[in-house]
């Protein structure tokens, strides 16, 4: 499906590609935020991160689910601009967080609540973080 998006971008002449994100978690709030960003065409979700073995390599909103240990390779391979995590998430080990600090990727930690107002606030925070990285 991504190949179709790339062809469409070339044919339709979109000036800039969408910023690339990794979402840590596959819970409802992660899904809702990713869905809002995709629907508004504000970001390209490269991957979701989850540490449960039964979700590995499955697809969610057109992006694959990977283990936390794959994050560094994903950032480097896909030139990811932002990693979005939630405050309650303890999925990413400290050793991987240290490796990510050395890479040119921003990390955003959001508070975890699940109301419509919070979703709008999260979206705004993601967009502000992306704007500051340009």
Automatic annotation (TrEMBL):
<dbReference type="InterPro" id="IPR029063">
    <property type="entry name" value="SAM-dependent_MTases_sf"/>
</dbReference>
<protein>
    <submittedName>
        <fullName>Uncharacterized protein</fullName>
    </submittedName>
</protein>
